[in-house]
## 1
Amino acid sequence: MPQTLSLLYDRVRVEEKEIINAAQKKGVELRPIDAKELHLNITDLKKDEIFGDVAIERCVSHFRGLYITAILESKGIHVINPFSVAALCGDKLLCSMKLAKAGIPTPKTIVAFTKDEAMKVLEEEMGYPAVIKPVFGSWGRLIAPLKDRETAQALLEDREEMGNPLYQIYYIQEMVERPPRDIRTVVVGDKIAASIYRYSAPDDWRTNIARGGKAEVCNLTEDLKELVLKAAEVVGTGVLGVDAMETKEGIVIHEVNSTVEFKGAMSVSEVDIPGMIIDYALERARK
Ligand SMILES: Nc1ncnc2c1ncn2[C@@H]1O[C@H](COP(=O)(O)OP(=O)(O)O)[C@@H](O)[C@H]1O
Ligand SMILES: [Mg+2]
C-alpha cells in the first residue's frame, strides 16, 4: 500500500500551497485538513484513517497545532513535527535552555517572575539595551528592545497588566550586537535544505520576513552547518527553522522554529524545500 499523508492547516500560506503542490507532483496522496473544522474524540484511541500514515502539522496557531499533535500521536499517527519537538520549540524559555545545555552558543538570557525582579535583572545584571520576549509567539510579536530604565519600566508595567499569565514570565535577553540581518536555515530531518540572510526592513530592527525582512542566499561554512544541524538534533529533529545571529565573538543560535516558514528561503534558493518535506514525511511513514 502506498503511504498517504495529511496536512493540517488553519490558514493556507504559500508554504502550505507548495507542500500540497509538491505532493501532487510526486504522485503522493496528501489530504489537506482544515483544523478549524476539526473535532477529535480524545477518549476513543481508535486510529482515524483520514490522517493517513503521517500528518504534517502546519497550523499558524501554535497551541491549536500542538494539541492536535498530542491527540494524533495518542491515536498512533506520526506527526511532523512530533509533540515533544513542537512543545519545546514553541517555548522560547525551554528552547534556550535546551540549546545552552547542549553547549550551543545562544544569547545570554535571564528569566524573572515579577516586574520588580525583572527590573533588578536589567539594572544589576543585564544592563541596557536588552530585549524582552514573550516565551511563546512568532513573527517578532511583542518582542521589544529595552533601551533604558524608563522604557523598561513602562514595558514591564504593560506586561504586568496583560491577561495571559505567560506574559508575566519575564524572558530577558542580552541585545546581540549584530549586522541588520540574521541567518535562517531550513532543516529537514538531518539535512540542510536552504539558508538565507534575513535583512530587517528599513523601519524595523527585527529581521522576520513577516515584518518585511528581505531574503538573500547565505552559504554556510562547514562549521556553521554542523552547528545548525546539532541545534536541530538537540530539539529532537523534524522540519525546522534554525535562526542564528552573527556577533563579533561568533555565531549564536537564538531560536529553533517548529512550524517553519520558508517562503523567503524558497524565493532565493533553487532547492525544492516542499519536495524535501514530502520525501521526509514518506520516510517517516515507512518507519
Ligand atoms: N537578543 C537579540 N538581539 C538582537 N536582535 C534580536 C534578539 N532577539 C531577537 N532579535 C531580532 O528579533 C527577531 C525576532 O526574535 P525571535 O527571538 O526570533 O522571535 P520570533 O519567534 O518572534 O521570531 C530576530 O529574528 C532578530 O532579528
Ligand atoms: Mg524568530
## 2
Amino acid sequence: MQGVTDARFRRQHFLQQGGVDCYYTPFLRWERNGVRPKDRRDVLPTANQGVPVVPQVIAANRDEFCRLCDFLQKMGWTSIDLNMGCPFPMQTGHGRGAGILQHPERVESLLQEMTVRREVSFSIKMRLGQQSPDEAFALIPMLNEAPLHHVTLHPRLGIQQYSGTPDRDSFARFYALLQHPLVYNGDIVAVNQVYRLGKDFPDLEGVMIGRALVEHPDLARVIKSR
Ligand SMILES: Cc1cc2nc3c(=O)[nH]c(=O)nc-3n(C[C@H](O)[C@H](O)[C@H](O)COP(=O)(O)O)c2cc1C
C-alpha cells in the first residue's frame, strides 16, 4: 500500500506474524527520470530477500509498462503484478490504475506486451471499472486470452474510491466468466468472511487483504491457522 507499507514492514510482518503467501510492493511508476529512488530501494532484491514478494507496476501505456518491466527484469524479478485498480485521481486522471479500464485498446496493448515477455509471470490487480462494471466485463475476452498467473479483483469502481460496499454480484459474475485463477480483495476484516467466500466461490484462488492487515497484523495468521 502506497505510503503505508514498505520492505521493512513486509519483512517484519513475514518474520513476526506470517500467514501471508505473497506480499505485493506498492506500485512503481515511470516518471520523467525513471523510477523514484525511494521506490527503487524498496524493490531491490536485497531489501526483499527471503520474503515472498511480487513487485507491482502502474502504467498508462505500453511504453511505460515496457520501461518498468525492463527495470524490474534487470534486477532479476520474474513475477510482475500490473495495477489496474488504483482509484487516486492523480493516477486515474492520467489513465493509470482504474483509469485504464475505460480504454480497452490500451489494456490490450499491455496484455500483448505480456505475451512477448514469456519469461515473466504476470498477474493483474483490478477494479470493476472506473465508471461502470461494464468496463471489466468488456475486458474479459482479452483477459482470458492473456498469459496471466491470476487476477485479483476488488469489486468497487474507481469513482467510489473506498465508499459503499464491494459489489458481490458483479464479483460472482466475473468469477463465472474469468478463465484464470481469481483472488478476492475488498473489506476483509474477519476470519468468517474468508470462510464465507470459500463456500460461495469454491474455486477461489485466495484473498488479498490490505488495510485490515495493517490494523490487525495477526489476521492472516489467524485465518491460516483455522
Ligand atoms: C493508502 C492506500 C494505499 C494503497 N496502495 C495500493 C497499491 O500501491 N497497490 C495496490 O494494488 N493497492 C493499493 N491499495 C488498495 C489496497 O490494496 C486494496 O485493494 C484496498 O484497500 C481494498 O482492500 P482492503 O479493504 O483489504 O484494504 C491502497 C489502499 C490504500 C488505502
